[in-house]
Design goal:
mainly alpha; Serine Threonine Protein Phosphatase 5, Tetratricopeptide repeat; two-stranded antiparallel sheet; 29 helices; about 0% strand; elongated
């Protein structure tokens, strides 16, 4: 209420004068010489410089002696409050709290508007310092006074509720923060209807976005999307559809839609924002490259890898034009494109991009920066995919050493690199080293993130996969089930990651011979994948192929063939005709055709034998042995020459 540009400039000038005075005094003392005990000229005894709080006290004394303004508005207490505003504005919340606490204590239990203002500002500064309990108590005192004096639907009530919401967010109490954010929105809208100037569109949009972000954190997707859409309507009404703030808001909405697997809505928002950027910044700008990159990520999430590749390449071309080929951000775009190429099996194309990204970041950031650890890890993953395990290991080790030095031995990033090293040792059948590294990764994340964090579930899943590879199936099962439970409680039963855990448990049950249980888990994995990723996603094709292989084992050839045909179609459209998984699907279909042909031949032979036996009517002759039943072992003889098994094609963990 009291803050404006003139007072800000005046206070800034006064503060600068006080600080310059301190510097000048210090410089004079540094050059001054006084006679010492032996008569020689020596520097004077050192006097410690005054603290910021000393300068605040000096300002306070000046405020005390300053005459009130002619209209009586500017009193000593108002001068002090203005000083606190300036200190908070200049990012000195501790000093601001010092001044505001003195004012608050002087007012005591007085319930007037000046006390409301002081306590609101004090609570906000305390919250910035992490003093959450005192901040909330102070803010609620201000809230009660404001509601008593003015009413429950004023801009000040909305601002106080918003600050309490921020405190609750800092404390991690998302449920209460969400309730407070919703209350703040309703108060702002009521204040707008009542005609308060402070309740403008921009303020309400900010409140709605905060509410949407909290709903996203709480996995309340419908509420989050509704808040984003309401805020977009208001922005477009205030600014028009072609405004930079509208484009920025569309980008936020698209991210939210993408996280909720609302891919069509996300693409619509990204494309609108991209069209705006083309009109107002031209075809070569950072905004253009960022939106192309976001669209590429969106298509990658949907499994549309060729389209994603084209968008990544376009984003890289634009950002290299804008920033040059050696900029650190170019390394990020190179890494993104390389990752996509690796997923598609284009390993030789991906390798030079990984290496170029690493070289750019080493030049820009030095060889010990944490980003270098990420680049080394990704290059090691590529070498591992190519079977170059000995070349991959030193890269993993170097990445681990960099982050150990930069972040400490108990940082979650260390768990990530330990997990990846464990995967390498698993590939080399160094079972004990792999188990040791997985166990260390689990212990680090349980300490750092808690025993029920989704990252812990990932490492439990991978340790279970190690036990499964060793044939220790009974030890693997409880780990898989614990990982499934953690993910279900943290992310919800319908989250896309749940399909991964269902798929892996199904692979385990198949190995244990529990074929019906395995079938149920595969079907759940496919159902979740189709609803969250879409029926044309490569991961859904993987799970279809896994279920198809199981059905072959169960002698159900018709549904198995239908699943492999669908998986083959998806893989041809997403990863290409020559990808190993596409080839493998085609080989399984050929195997099923061979099985059908052999069974038809056996049925024909049996029919001929039966007819011959009827004509001969040799009842005394020994009975003809029945045809060999169609069993799993016979099926395996037929496809034993295939390149990879279904489990290898999909990966069990």
């Amino acid at each position: 209420m009291l803050w404006n540009e003139d007072t800000q400039v005046d206070l800034a000038n006064l503060w600068e004068a006080l600080v310059k005075g301190e510097v000048s005094t210090a410089n004079v003392r540094a050059t001054k010489r006084v006679p010492g005990l032996d008569g020689a000229m020596v520097p004077p005894p050192r006097v410690p410089p005054r603290r910021r709080r000393d300068l605040v006290a000096e300002y306070d004394s000046l405020a005390e002696t300053a005459p009130p303004s002619p209209d009586g508005v500017l009193t000593p207490d108002v001068y002090r409050e203005l000083m606190a505003d300036f200190l908070a504005w200049s990012n000195q919340p501790g000093e601001a709290s010092f001044v505001l606490r003195m004012l608050s204590e002087a007012k005591g239990d007085a319930a007037d508007l000046a006390a409301v203002s002081v306590n609101f500002k004090l609570g906000r500064c305390l919250g910035r310092q992490g003093l959450h309990l005192e901040a909330e108590e102070t803010l609620r005192r201000a809230l009660a006074a404001e509601q008593l004096l003015v009413g429950a639907e004023t801009p000040m009530v909305a601002e106080i509720v918003t600050e309490i919401c921020k405190v609750k967010l800092d404390e991690g109490d998302l449920e209460m923060a969400g309730q407070l954010a919703a209350h703040a929105v309703s108060v702002w809208e009521a204040a707008e209807a009542a005609g308060y100037e402070e309740a403008d569109v921009n303020t309400i949009v900010t409140a709605l976005v905060r509410l949407a972000e909290i709903c996203d954190e709480l996995n309340r997707t419908t509420a989050a999307e509704a808040a984003y859409e309401r805020s977009l309507e208001r922005l477009e009404y205030m600014l028009g559809p072609d405004h930079p703030e509208v484009a920025e808001h569309l980008g936020m909405m698209a991210n939210s839609y993408k996280n909720h697997a609302e891919f069509e809505k996300a693409e619509f928002c990204y494309c609108r924002a991209l069209a705006f950027a083309h009109r107002f910044t031209g075809p070569q700008s950072l905004h253009i490259s960022h939106f192309y990159n976001a669209l590429a990520e969106l298509h990658r999430a949907q499994g549309d890898l060729p389209h994603a590749q084209a968008l990544y390449q376009r984003a890289l071309q634009v950002i290299e034009t804008v920033l040059g080929t050696l900029h650190a951000e170019v390394a990020t775009y190179l890494n993104n494109l390389a990752e996509l190429l690796r997923v598609q099996g284009k390993l030789l194309e991906a390798e030079p991009m990984y290496k170029r990204a690493l070289a750019i970041d080493e030049r820009a950031q030095g060889t010990s920066h944490p980003i270098i650890a990420i680049r080394l890890n990704n290059l090691a993953e590529l070498f591992r995919d190519r079977g170059l395990l000995e070349e991959a290991e030193p890269l993993y080790q170097r990445a681990l050493a960099i982050d150990m030095a930069a972040l400490g031995a108990n940082h979650p990033n260390i768990a990530t690199y330990l997990n990846n090293l464990a995967g390498l040792y698993k590939s080399r059948e160094l079972w004990d080293k792999a188990a040791e590294h997985y166990t260390r990764a689990i212990a680090i994340d349980e300490r750092a993130l808690g025993p029920n964090h989704p990252d812990v579930a990932i490492y439990l899943n991978n340790l279970a996969g190690l036990y499964k590879a060793q044939g220790r199936l009974d030890e693997a099962e409880p780990l898989y089930l614990r990982a499934l439970r953690i993910n279900e409680e943290a992310l919800g039963a319908e989250h896309t990651d749940m399909a991964i855990y269902f798929n892996n448990i199904a692979l385990l049950y198949k190995a244990q011979g529990k074929l019906q249980d395995a079938r149920l888990y595969y079907e759940q994995a496919i159902d979740i994948g189709e609803r969250t990723l879409g029926a044309e996603h490569p991961q859904v094709a993987t799970r279809m192929a896994n279920l198809g292989a199981l059905l072959v084992d169960m002698n159900e050839l018709d549904p198995a063939q239908a699943l492999f045909e669908k998986a083959l179609e998806v893989r041809r459209n997403t990863v290409g005709e020559n990808h190993p998984d596409t080839v493998n699907c085609a080989e399984w279909l050929e195997s099923i055709r061979e099985i059908r042909a052999e069974l038809a031949e056996e049925r024909a032979v049996e029919a001929a034998r039966s007819a011959a036996a009827a004509v001969t009517a040799a009842s005394a002759a020994p009975a003809t042995p029945p045809p060999q039943p169609y069993t799993k072992s016979r099926v395996r003889r037929i496809w034993s020459g295939r390149a990879r098994s279904a489990a290898d094609m999909c990966g069990s963990s």
